[in-house]
Design goal:
This protein is α/β, with parallel strands linked by helices. The protein has a single domain, classed as Alpha/Beta hydrolase fold, catalytic domain (Rossmann fold). It is built from 15 helices and eight strands. Keywords: Hydrolase.
């Protein structure tokens, strides 16, 4: 049995993909979001492997030690789905349980429609399934930016956010991790206009590390990786949103019928922005929904903030799947 995390680089879908693995048994692929890395799943790698699963955590396209294509078109849904199918092929796997967080959740929600037969179940974190937007995402982003600072709009112009975040990596990561956590400060950004402000101008000041869920060594891993790579790869996922929207025209509303568990932090701003019942649409769009867990005290980075609770929910769900 694999008792330690192993690392390797695999040729996948025309890129080189860095993958961290641990354990043996039913395969579980963990897909991070922005600004994440395979390391965002460090607590799940340990716990799920100990529970008898083969846990596979890639650096997603554009991140960490995986290739960073420069063309925004390389981050559309056709490419990101092909990455996951190619990863299974490279590992000799027919199917896997997929888990996603943030942009990883956006991708994983689409996998059953795009790659039927390759997905046995989903474990989704922080981002519920929602109906298809009636307009291009960039149109919606512009509207939000007319009301208040909106990072989704700020990220669209190539080079602007790339420079700001890349030149202030440590400050940016500390501010964002804190604002999106259970401290629940992210919506402070809405107090500022878009014009004349960068992301660092509107994010609240964080307390000094260590925090109760992130120590200096763990934070240092993120800083070192993003200082080396910059943020353009991650930002390109935002810039590809119009292409993803267009490619999903005939697929987005297809019901997700594989077994699904959804896990989120009680204080996640994503849920707060979705109103009184953020799961209403998901219940209609995801007939395979088995369970929903809202973790008290946690924010957006629920798998790092409350790993024991998240791991317990995942292991319970996995244990209930058909063999």
């Amino acid at each position: 049995m694999k008792t330690e995390v192993t690392h390797r680089i695999l040729p996948v879908n025309g890129i080189e993909m860095h993958v961290a693995e641990r354990g043996e048994g039913r395969p579980v692929v963990l897909c991070h979001g922005f600004p994440g890395l395979w390391f965002s799943w460090r607590h799940q790698l340990d716990a799920l492997a100990a529970a008898g699963y083969r846990v596979i955590a890639p650096d997603m396209r554009g991140y960490g030690r995986t290739s960073v294509p420069s063309d925004v078109a390389a981050y559309d849904r056709a490419h990101t789905v092909a990455d996951m199918v190619g990863l299974l092929d490279a590992l000799g796997l027919e199917q896997a349980v997929f888990a996603g967080h943030d942009f990883g959740a956006h991708l994983v929600w689409d996998l059953p429609a795009w790659a039927p037969g390759r997905v046995s179940a989903l474990m989704q974190l922080s981002v519920p399934r929602t109906p298809r937007l009636p307009v291009q995402p960039s149109v919606g982003f512009r509207y939000l930016a007319s009301q208040h600072f909106a990072h989704v709009h700020y990220f669209q112009e190539r080079g602007v956010a790339d420079r700001e975040l890349g030149e202030n990596t440590r400050e940016f990561l500390a501010k964002l991790f804190h604002a999106l956590s259970g401290a629940n400060r992210y919506l402070d950004c809405w107090e500022f206009p878009s014009e004349g402000n960068g992301y660092l101008d509107v994010l609240p000041e964080p307390p000094a590390l260590p925090w109760n869920w992130l120590d200096e060594d763990e934070f240092g891993y993120y800083v070192a990786e993003f200082e080396r790579t910059g943020f353009t790869g991650g930002l390109n996922w935002y810039r590809a949103e119009d292409a993803v929207w267009a490619q999903n025209e005939a697929l987005h509303e297809r019901p997700v019928e594989v077994p699904v568990t959804f896990i989120a932090g009680e204080k996640d701003p994503v849920l707060e922005m979705m109103g009184r019942d953020p799961f209403a649409a998901m219940r209609k769009l995801v007939p395979g929904l088995v369970s929903t867990h809202v973790i008290p005290g946690a924010g957006h980075f629920v798998q790092m903030e409350k790993p024991a609770e998240v791991n317990a929910a995942m292991i319970e769900f996995l244990g209930g799947l058909p063999a």
